[in-house]
Amino acid sequence: MEELLRILSDLHPDVDFETQENLIDDMILDSFDIVTLISEISESFDVTISAEHIIPENFNSAKAMYELIQKLEDEE
Amino acid sequence: MKQKRKVLIKIILTTAVVFGILFLLQRLLMPKYVNDVVEGAFIAEYYQEENKDFDVIFVGDCEVYENFSPVKLWQEYGINSYIRGSAEQYIWQSYYILEDTLRYSMPDAVIFNIQSLQFNESQSEAYNRMTLEGMKWSSSKVNAILASMKEDENFLDYVFPILRYHSRWSELTFDDVKYMFSSKKVTHNGYYMRVDVKPAENVPAGRPLTDYSFGDKAWKYLKMMTELCEENGITLVLIKAPSLYPYWYDQWDEQVKDYAEENNLMYINFLELIDEIGIDYKTDTYDAGLHMNLSGAEKLSVYLGRILSEEIGIPDRRGDEELSAIWEQNIEDYEAEKERQYKYYGIQAE
Amino acid sequence: MLFTSYEFIGFAMLLLIAYYCCPKKYQWVLLLMFSCAFYYIAGPVYLIYIFITIITTYFAACMIEKNADRQSEYLKIHKAEMSKEEKKSYKLHEKHIRAGWKIGCIVINIGILAVVKYADFLIDNANSILTSFGYTGKLSFASLALPLGISFYTLQAIGYLIDVYRGTVRAERNLFKFALFISFFPQLIQGPISRFDSLSKTLYSGHTFDIKTVSYGLQRVLWGFFKKVVIADRILAGVQTIIGDIQTYNGAYAFVGMIFYTIELYADFTGGIDITIGIAQSLGITVQENFIRPYFSKSLKEYWRRWHISMCNWFRDYIFYPVSSSRLIQKVSKFSRKKFSAAIGKHLPIYISSFVVWFATGIWHGASWNFIVWGLANWFVLMVSEELEPVYLRFHNRFHLNTNFLYRLYLIGRTVMLVCCLNMFDCYSSVSDTLTAFGSMFTASNWHIIWDGALLNIGLTMADYCILLAGIILLIAVSAAGRSGGVRDKISMKPYPVRLCIWFGLFLIVIIMGAYGVGYDASQFIYNRF
Prior knowledge:
heterotrimer, A: mainly alpha, Non-ribosomal Peptide Synthetase Peptidyl Carrier Protein, Chain A, 4 helices, B: alpha/beta, five-stranded parallel beta sheet, 15 helices, 7% strand
């Protein structure tokens, strides 16, 4: 989780990712951010996030992203 | 209950306001045809006649409304006549205008100028408008519109002319307000008077055509017109006014002659009678041979009037007091217009 | 049938009456019938194309879902006896079957679109290549008619299929309901590209007549007509004159044409979408918004989040994400991280996948090079501003400009000008003409045309300019008012006579000031021969 938060705050230093729950719906993260995130996550966690996982529910908060990563790690 | 009534009143008021404003705007935006282009006003003017009991009705294009003077016919023969002519009136329009006229009175004779037989389809949306818009709503008008519409025209535009003329808002003049609900009389029983002179010179000969036969649609309406007159016991007279141009081909004339013979109709080609009538193209035309001026029109009227009263037996109505009173007024207007035009064109009255 | 034809208005009115007379259970059937009729009127042959798309997508989606259901069923039953590896290989195997269905269906549908839309473009390019190699023979053009709305409904069908494949929506089991989703007629003219999960919520359920919904819908339609008929169709005359002759109308004219075209495009497109959404709303159906005040954007990136949203989202979800998260791109990213730097590795997936997206967006707009160049120009500008973002950020933080109203206004103006320039590729429909016209703006010495009355000779009169100016001010005012809640809501709070004045006034403006019909040309009515 800390690793993820580090990636996120690298991306947008001005956002408090621990509390934000509407990252996608409030347009805080745009599509470019998502793509950067995916490559960063796959770099640090060794999971593959494919297009079908890119839905707002999975990226609206740091928590949701972390859950997605854990789920993918389980499946690997 | 009270609530319901309130809603009802609201609906009624809204409808009244909405349609009232739309109607007013429509009247405002429609062309008035009072000053420059008066030809669009002719068809509607007929309905203002108090006594529509005419014995002779003319239908057709400018070759009727510029070439015959009902006032002269009255003065010389006591013939009570009206011209329902309009600019480039196509034969299907002539037919339906005649049908429309018959709803008001039954004439003894109908005179139709066959110049329009050459067209098998309407040629111009603007001319369609000038002829059709003046008609009062009736099945005749509906049919006339349906028969006249060009491909890109829309029936709805005739029902709601505001859709056609909406873009006139930027060129409205005071006349559009002044004549919103009334109109100025521009003809003399359908006759459009011109007193100026422009002699006919170098009239171009007609170019040879590949096909001289009239189209199916034109024939169809000529037949319908013939039948309509027959059914109602009206004498139909076909004429060709003595216009030097547009060219009237012999091949066309043959077809009309044959048709008249087959159907026992009188056909008068005034082009062949120029000398007999005494038309002088140096003095009797105002646009170099296309149309007669007053002098030419009166000569033609005298000639035609003789045929109408002697050969067809149109009665002399000068004994009718009511009609005489109406015609007295007509003559007065006619003389006044003459004077005005002589002055305007700087011509010495004969 | 165009939006702005009597036939369309009559068609929609007939539907509206029939719709609320019809039992609620069958309202969607009625909609399907009207949609088929609409398509039939547009061209009976086109029905075959849309029919193929409906059948193939319906069938493929059902097969994919059946397979997915069977898979979870199987896993549930054999949970205990399967090892993790066995499960994984079983899942992979089944996934390949589903992917087969998906790809097969996409190939068929994109194939149809490609053939009808791009055959002539490819033949044309093949001919120029052949000529350059010295061949004299030419391939003849296929000259296929483009079926109404095919670009929109094909994307919509594919989007649905992929959603089913990803498991985000359930497949529609009723073929006729699915047919309605693809052929829903208000969307066939100018889009938008709806997603099944959003449109299906209201498309099939019955709707009782509700005066507020219906009048809101019709008000939206009226507003759409205002944009289309009063502004877009009027300014079109000027645009056509300018782009029709680039030699005469260069320099300042090109600048005027560029601005006019952007206004025309905006009014025409958003007006069309207003009509679509308005009709749907009057039927109780919610169609997603396609624009959120795009010309209030402060950057091109933001503009593309607010302009033609349904299309942008489609390309984002079904091309951008899949490409950028694909193994190949991720590998490239990892490789360049190691070889070059972390920053490049981070940005590379974005560059490559947005290149693909903008190429696809360009070619989707039309089968010609100018659209492709237009797409790539957009890509280029976006990438440059992405690279410059850290610089901007430092600049903003230094001078605290972000809160400055004038600075924001400057950003908006800059974005509008940028979009105007990019739209020139679309407007001139030829890359070389665009570049000629664009270049002429910088060497122009004819700026005096803007005030010396020359603009009155490009097919627009003083009256036209007055209407356009007033209309555009109204557009901007309504847009600005829309930022703080619905304009219709605000109007509906007003007393009845005020509301009547507003809506009836707008109706009258459309009727009278609209640039429709043959137009009154007094000279036609002058009696000249007969």
